[in-house]
Amino acid sequence: MNNEIAALFLDYSCKKLDGMTDNLRLCLGKLTDEQIWERHGAHENTVGNLVLHLCGNMRQWTIHGVGGAKDVRVRDAEFSADGGLSGTQLMETFASTVAEARAIIASLPAERLVERVTPQGRDVSVLDAIYQVVGHVQQHVGQVILLTKQMTRQDLDLTMPRPR
Description:
There is one protein chain. The chain is mostly helical. The protein has a single domain (3-152), classed as Four Helix Bundle (Hemerythrin (Met), subunit A), CATH 1.20.120.450. Helices cover 63% and strands 2% of the residues. The chain contains six helices and two strands; from the N terminus they run αααααββα. The protein has helices at residues 3-30, 33-36, 47-64, 75-80, 87-106, 126-152, and strands at residues 116-117, 124-125. The protein has a two-stranded antiparallel ribbon. Strand 1 and strand 2 (124-125) form a beta hairpin. Helix 1 (3-30) packs antiparallel against helix 5 (87-106) and helix 3 (47-64) runs antiparallel to helix 6 (126-152).
């Protein structure tokens, strides 16, 4: 694999995780702890559930799958949680999980990107695993952004502030 392409991919992956961390921090800072755990039915996930789910996914795919740490994920607990952690605690957990995953991603040599790993029992390349994690974080942080806009009834001006 071309080392320059690999370096660009790894650097961009880290930057995307950093940007999503900033977006999540903004959202959690605008929500009360009650809003973070608000659920309108059993079919919905709370903002808190989404944060726990992202941490579990990053841990399983990157920290375990790519980094080789023990797989300690309890996926059902991510969705059954109904409180107990404040927005500040959730953000600290998310930020530390991103930092751990990011350190693994940033330190990868190019040749590891084609190596096969098996997070969640799936046979994927290391590049696939990183791409899955970054896309998954973007997907669910996007949901948190929408929920935050709905609960606060305001635009967050995350991309380009514009007059209203």
